[in-house]
Design brief:
Blueprint: H1 15-33, E1 45-50, H2 56-67, E2 71-75, H3 88-98, E3 101-105, H4 109-118, E4 123-127, H5 133-147, E5 154-158, H6 163-175, E6 178-182, H7 191-199, E7 204-207, H8 210-214, E8 219-222, H9 234-240, H10 248-253, E9 259-262, H11 274-277, H12 284-303
Parallel strand pairs: 1-2, 1-3, 3-4, 5-6, 5-8, 6-7, 8-9
Length: about 300
């Protein structure tokens, strides 16, 4: 075992550590907008391991490394076939000899665990089928900026109990926000994730009525119904999620100063309408920008 810190899940971080990441992200964001540049990662290289395509994850980590004085190298699906051409253990050991950190966007959570178990450098979970911690950090950074705090707030998530929902459950429980999910029967989040959050004092409600979930909510969040790798389930999910679309009427049922979030990419006309995405209550593109700032904070925390 190597004595190195990773970001596999926000469940591994204390509330204080999450606040430290948010403070760092906010200060780096303000300094970047003022033209202040840092060289905290000069001479450091981040390996970007991708099994899935990406816009926000790839660009934000690449730009983040550059803005911190470092460098990144992209390794696509054809460059590294985790566990196929060679074992994930060997890949982790070899990359550790070349780079200062590994960001991996993969299908299976086990691949992240295997990389973290064998790497001698920090491993950052850029997405897996169980968690999306970098997204959740950007999400709560956006809530913090818009709402000035977390205590007493309610976040309503309309959609599948997926990796994004799991990381939001963890983040909300750590920061004192109540979490409600409205999903069709059979699409609930993992009981293991929910039970762990509740054991820490988190308030997690699992509902099946979108109207009930958004009633009085401070934040309304949605995500695509069919994630990458689930295309075969697309038609079935379209049918199951009928009535779960976030439109302006849904926002009107929430709190008067509701904040709308979506991790993107969006399938307009399915989980969200185009009109809702451009509503004055939408923070979707501030949220997308915050991927860069939140991830810079993670890079500084783990690699500086």
């Amino acid at each position: 075992m190597h004595n190195v810190r990773h970001l596999v899940s926000l469940a591994d971080y204390t509330t204080e550590e999450i606040y430290e990441l948010l403070e760092t992200a906010r200060s780096l964001k303000l300094e970047s907008r003022s033209g202040i540049r840092h060289e905290m990662l000069r001479g450091k290289t981040l390996a970007l391991v991708f099994q899935k395509p990406s816009l926000r994850t790839r660009v934000s980590f690449d730009v983040g490394m550059q803005e911190l004085g470092g460098h990144s190298i992209y390794l696509g699906p054809e460059d590294i076939k985790l566990g196929v051409r060679e074992t994930t253990e060997d890949i982790a050991v070899v990359l550790s000899r070349y780079v200062s950190g590994i960001m991996a966007r993969v299908f299976a959570h086990q691949d992240i665990l295997d990389l973290a178990a064998h790497a001698a450098v920090p491993v950052i979970n850029g997405l897996c089928d169980r968690y999306h911690p970098c997204q959740a950090l950007a999400d709560v950074l956006t809530v913090w900026e818009k709402k000035r705090g977390f205590e007493g707030l309610t976040l309503a998530f309309l959609g599948d109990g997926n990796n994004v929902a799991h990381s939001l459950i963890v983040a909300c429980s750590k920061l004192g926000m109540a979490f409600r999910i409205a999903c069709p029967e059979g699409y609930e989040p993992s009981p293991e994730v929910v039970d762990a959050a509740r054991a820490e004092g988190g308030e997690v409600s699992i509902l099946h009525d979108p109207s009930e979930a958004v009633n009085g909510a401070d934040v309304v969040y949605t995500d695509v119904w069919t994630s990458m790798g689930q295309e075969a389930e697309g038609a079935k999910k379209q049918e199951a999620f009928a009535g779960f679309t976030v439109d302006r009427a849904v926002l009107d049922r929430a709190g008067k100063d509701v904040l709308l979030l979506h991790c993107l990419p969006a399938h307009y006309g399915e989980e969200i309408t185009y009109q809702a995405s451009r509503d004055r209550r939408s923070g979707i593109f501030d949220q997308a920008e915050n991927r860069l700032h939140a991830q810079k904070a993670v890079l500084v925390r783990l690699m500086a």
